[in-house]
Structures are given as C-alpha cells and as structure tokens.
Design a protein that fits this description.
This is Xylulose kinase. By secondary structure, this protein is an alpha/beta fold. The protein has 18 helices and 24 strands.
C-alpha cells in the first residue's frame, strides 16, 4: 500500500450480484485497497436475495482490504435501488429481499396507479409513475401474497439502508434512494402519508431520511468488521446516485450505465415529472435531481444470448437485418413487465455473430429511446455520452452505442464508480466538501473520447417497427399465452 496523502475512506457498492469495497485516499482519490464477495440471487419467477448475505459479503470484502480498512476514518454505502427489505423486531430479515428486477408486482403497480389518481398525479406527487421495480409495488404484492410476512415486519428498509443500519444500529436512508420507493413525495421531500395509508404501511416502520453531508452515526463495536471504533458513517445512497457522485456529474451531461440493468440519466436542477412513466424523477444524493430511465435487460441478457450461441461476447458481425429484443426478464423501458425475448427476421444466411449484434442493438435501442427525455431542453446534444458500468469497456458495447446514438462516447478510466461515489460521500462528511466536487478533484471522469460516427437510422427504424408491431404479443400476460 502506498503512503496516503490524506485520510482514508471506504466506499461500498452492494449490487445485485456482489458487494465491493474500496479504500480510497480522500486527498487524491487513489484506490489503496479493494475487496469483493458474491451474493446469491434466486432464479425463476422472482428475484430475491437474503440480506444477511450482503452483510457477510461486506465483511469479507472489507477483510480483503487488510489494514487499510482499519485505518479508514469514514465509510459510505451505495446500493442497488428499490429492493424491499423486511425486518422483524430483532432486526432479522422476515424473508429474502424482493429485488429491483423482480417484476411479479406488475399487477399491483397498475392497480396502485389507477387507485391513486392515474399517471399524471403520481408523477406530480412522487416524481415517478411506479412500475413493477418500485418498492411500493413489492410491498403491495407481499401484502396480497404473504400477509404473515407483513404482520411480522417491524421495519422496512432498502438494501443500502440495511447495511448502513448494521454498521450504526440506526435506521436511516437518503433522499436519492428514498425517491425510488414510490412513497416519498418529491414535491415535499417527505414520506407521503396518504400513499402509505393506502398501502397499509405505518410510517414508523420507515427509516429517517437524513440530509446530504450529515454524519448518520459511527461504526458500532463489531467483531465482524476491521473498522476502528468511531469510524464515521455517511448517509449512503442508491447506486445510480452514487455513480453520479463518483463522476462528479454536472447538469446536462448524459450517462449510459451498462450493467445487469441499463440506465441513462443526467443531473438536473429541475424536478422531473414524466407522466408517461418512461423517466423516473429520482432525487440525487446532493440536493438536485436525477431523471433516469432504466432497462431490466442489459449485459446479462446479451451475455446469455452469446452463451446460447456458443460464441464470445465480442464475436459480433455486421450486416444483420435481424431484430432481437432481449427482454429476458420482462422489461421496464419500454414498460413490458410480462415480455420475453423476441427474434424477428431470421434467414438461412444469418450468422451467430449477426444474432449477437442484434441483441446488442436491441438492448441499446431501449436506452437511447429515453436519452432525450432525461436531458434538459438546453443540454448540448452533441456532447460526449459518458459510458460506465461493467459493459463500458467492451468494444461491442462501445461501437453499438456510437453507431446507434451518432454521438461521441467517453469511457472514464476510473472503475467501480458506485463505490467511488460512496467514497466521495464519505470524504465529504470528513471535509465538509460537496462529494461531487471531491470526485471532480479526483478527476474520475477522465478517459478517452471515441469520435462520433453516422447514426444508423435504418437499424433504429427497423427495431422501432418490430417493437410497435409486436406490442400485443409483448404485452400479453403469461396466463394469456
């Protein structure tokens, strides 16, 4: 480990598949140690994880960091959004957490939107029109399907809240993650008690929403952790808000994040209210807003297609007229929770590489369709797109985004931007700085810019046409097939 110039901080990313921890020099942004441990996610109709695995993975990741973690002065947790964590009176999970990509609550989402005034009312009130990913719909699903779990629940948390509470012993959350629940009103920046009453959720079960820059507590004594006594704990936030912090994002710059899910977002000073439901009007972790569109199917779906074809994920070939909509887990953008993958235009001479390229095209098309909606009207649409996430360094992903967007693409050299954003937040509680300014001082967005190429209008039109024509099939519920 090199000698640090400033205090050390820890940033955590608890994602769908694993928990990562970075020990970072708060003065320079240098990563001096790191660790990672996996989670288990259920397969089948639902997507669930035992929150205790997240804690075990955090402990393992921190121990991999060695002495550096013990020297850290502050820690912050960024985590997967929307997951419903139900705890009993002893703080033990009542059941596995329902994750963001569990779409069994699609029916409850439609019902809640109808019962409480329709899409426009929801958008104006909470900033978003809740779909099956949102926490409130999962609570409604649980109430209908497992009422005994509801009766046993003494606390409701999000994934990052759960780990922060295990660190401090206190139930807290932040505005960024709270804005993805469906029961936090973006207009008043408070829990909406009418909505909570409607779904039978006592606000006393929810965590306190803390202010940006607030120290939420200190790490309590625990033999599981390498932290020293008194280590400060920052508020933490959702993964997308953490990545925005990690990039030091300013208003008007668009981000495409390629991970298990795909997201496109930008920081805005204007509170978003999109009644179409395409854009979620999330808060960021500072005081601004983070209009965001999310797809459920991104890198994992494309990798699955490559596996089925028996070829490497980079083995794409041009010249395809095939359309592949890789909606393997249903889809959120467009709002097709019951959809499955769809292949159209297959010919005798279609190659495996062309099929794989079609999967990339289908995944990127969904993200680019929302790009203009997340940007303010005065944003520069010729500026580079920031490409981040696990897929960002893949040549096939980079070239597909360039070809279908017609815009230059910048790939930051910094890795693990969610954990870096959490680390910047931890540094901010030590120094009093804006965490986004900390990340800009660390120069986290630095990276090569790939020049723009001509936009492939023919491919975009073909995919849009197939999507439109296939809408009745894609919207069909499983019990109608």
């Amino acid at each position: 480990m090199s000698a640090a110039q400033g205090p050390l901080v820890v940033g955590v990313d608890t994602s769908t598949q694993s928990t990562k921890a970075l020990v970072v020099d708060a003065a320079t942004g240098e990563v001096v140690a790191s660790g990672q441990a996996p989670h288990t996610v259920s397969s089948g109709a639902g997507r669930e994880s035992d929150p205790r695995q997240w804690w075990d993975a955090l402990c393992e990741a921190l121990h991999q960091c060695g002495d550096a973690a013990h020297e850290a002065a502050a820690v912050s947790v960024g985590g997967q959004q929307h997951g419903l964590v139900t705890l009993d009176a002893q703080g033990v999970p009542v059941r596995p957490a329902l994750l963001w990509n569990d779409v069994r609550s699609a029916r409850q989402a439609r019902r809640l939107v109808e019962e409480l005034g329709g899409p426009k009312t929801w958008a104006e009130r909470t900033g978003s029109v809740p779909g099956a990913s949102f926490t409130i719909t999962k609570w409604a699903w649980l109430a209908e399907n497992e009422p005994e779990a509801i009766r046993a629940t003494a606390a409701v948390r999000l994934p990052h809240d759960y780990l922060t509470e295990r660190l401090t012993g206190l139930g807290t959350t932040d505005r960024g993650d709270a804005s993805g629940t469906g029961w936090w009103a973006s207009g008043t920046e408070a829990y909406d008690e009418e909505i909570l009453r409607h779904v039978g959720l006592d606000p006393a079960l929810l965590p306190r929403v803390v202010r940006s820059g607030e120290v939420v507590g200190t790490v309590r004594d625990s033999g599981d952790l390498p932290f020293s006594k008194g280590t400060l704990v920052a508020p933490g936030t959702g993964d997308n808000a953490a990545a925005a912090l990690g990039l030091g994002l300013r208003p008007g710059t668009a981000v495409l994040s390629l991970g298990t899910s795909g997201t496109v977002y930008a920081v805005s000073t204007r509170r978003p209210t999109d009644p179409s439901g395409t854009v979620a009007g999330f808060a960021d972790a500072r005081g601004d807003w983070l209009p965001l569109a999310c797809t459920l199917n991104c890198t994992l779906a494309v990798d699955r297609v490559a596996t089925l074809l028996g070829i490497d994920r980079e083995a794409v070939e041009p010249g395809t007229s095939v359309t592949l909509l890789p909606y393997l887990d249903g889809e959120r953008t467009p709002d097709l929770p019951h959809a499955s993958g769809l292949l159209h235009g297959l010919r005798h001479d279609t190659t495996p590489g062309q099929l794989l390229q079609a999967a990339y095209d289908g995944a990127v098309h969904s993200l680019l369709g929302a790009l203009d909606l997340v940007l303010d009207a005065d944003a520069d649409r010729s500026a580079p797109l920031l490409l981040i996430g696990g897929g960002a360094r893949g040549t096939a992903w980079q070239q597909t985004v360039r070809r279908l967007s017609g815009r230059p693409v910048q790939v930051p050299e910094a890795k693990e931007l969610v954990a870096l954003g959490a680390a910047a937040q931890a540094a901010g509680v030590l120094t009093g700085e804006d965490p986004a300014a900390v990340a800009r001082r660390w120069d986290t967005a630095r990276g090569p810019v790939l020049e723009a190429v001509e936009r492939d209008e023919a491919a975009l039109a073909r995919i849009a046409g197939v999507l439109s024509d296939a809408a009745p099939l894609l919207e069909r519920r499983p019990d109608q097939r």
